[in-house]
């Protein structure tokens, strides 16, 4: 049985990452990349599906854990009647090979420890062929190779590699596991102590660049470190989460693969990173985007692979029983072929913001945006699957239209600011037409607020972003009414549902947790409508949902009081950073891209 989702911590090398539970067990690792097959998949099944566990060998023990300050280096402290032992887990920032390093330090007394390594490649299915090497083992399964090196003897037992050893105060024992390709030369072992120093230097150096100085600095820093860890360093793509199929409802079917780069999630990530002063990542991601977009504008996808791959075919694993029995376990994501009109607004907003904060724009990049807008001009009146990627048929989603307005609005501003040749008058006309249409058809007179889709009486938490994107200001009574209607109808237990799954036909059985990102959006919206105290109270409550090492999944189950959905999820951490930044700002929130501000707000 895997641990609860909130019992996991993340370690990573900015190309992939592993989840370590509170007992010192790694239950999830996709190697070599975030979206590769997992070699530890106990998270979605049982120990049969691969894990790596280091813990005291016998007797009772408890653990506490934390990250070393300003890093992604995890320290788990075991308290045993015999003494105290510290396990230091991390992945060095990758050079040629990817490694997981586990160092065991004797803090006091003497404790007998045990290490069990069960590699199961192909998402927990394939037991590798294992041979002995000096100080460790070499495991091969098809293209995959993993080399274990250890400072203590290891042996084989029940299709696992095992070590039993004693740790006394002052002792240091290490294990390194390195990924390689089975048809190439074996990777050399790394020096665990040197790797620890280098990794610490990397993360403290990175965290030291944070420009946010507000009250929530530590929390913001940790969320940004998490986002950095989810950014694929070779290309700048950002994964929505590092897991697949952690359920949005325990035992349910809302289980999806998030190990890909959504344009929406990544543009929001970029805004969070630049808000923190991290411009290199933002620039790398813009380059990623321009490469991914290459091709015909009508073939644009809402999500891509880490390197911009387009084929993300969805299939179901028939051998993994799923997290706490939540089936199916899906690999790939069919949402890749959906139409979601909002992505144009998010992209344009992101380019606009990059220009405002970094002055980074080239006319040839703008030409690509012009082509995208030509395409949007044709399709914006059509129904789409919307931000929530419903699988119950296309609709006229209000949020999608609002973001189409954002696309034309930011394009006009960019062209005017940079004095580029562009059909600005035509764009202004479309922008105004969309604005009028949303205000007429997205607003339900009877309810007195904006609603999820034209003609509907259902609410949608995505509309909380209305003042942030500058569509209407927080002072507009229609915005206030919408925020307060969401507060009344979509906030069971004080946190925000994205919509009511029992009333909206989304192609799936009803039931899911409250959506953490939407709950943070509510913080910004409350501030925007002038209710700063309520905004702050909500924020203070939301940060208590973070687990002991500061991580959030996609959703929270209010009844079971536990995190649900993929973990850690970029969306949740992005929304946290944005809400924290908004709370610290003197004036009211006026733009998702901070500088869209007053100019973007229309009556
Ligand atoms: O619930 C249905 C959909 O759920 C996923 O989408 C959600 O996660 C995405 C990544 O964070 C986010 O961009 C989107 O707005 C969310 O609704 C899933 O990936 C979809 O396939 C699924 O239809």
From TrEMBL:
GO molecular function list: alpha,alpha-trehalase activity
EC number: 3.2.1.28
All residue ranges annotated as the Trehalase-like N-terminal domain in the record: 3-183
Keyword Hydrolase carried by entry: yes
Pathway(s) the chain acts in: Glycan degradation; trehalose degradation; D-glucose from alpha,alpha-trehalose: step 1/1
Sequence ranges assigned to domain GH15-like in this UniProt record: 214-580
UniProt cross-references to InterPro entries, sorted A to Z: 6-hairpin_glycosidase_sf (IPR008928), 6hp_glycosidase-like_sf (IPR012341), GH15-like (IPR011613), Trehalase-like_N (IPR045582)
Reaction catalyzed: alpha,alpha-trehalose + H2O = alpha-D-glucose + beta-D-glucose
Top-level EC class: hydrolase
Cofactor list: phosphate
Keywords: Carbohydrate metabolism, Glycosidase, Hydrolase
Alphabetical GO biological process terms: trehalose catabolic process
Gene3D superfamilies linked to this entry: 1.50.10.10
Family: Belongs to the glycosyl hydrolase 15 family.
Name the UniProt record assigns to this protein: Trehalase
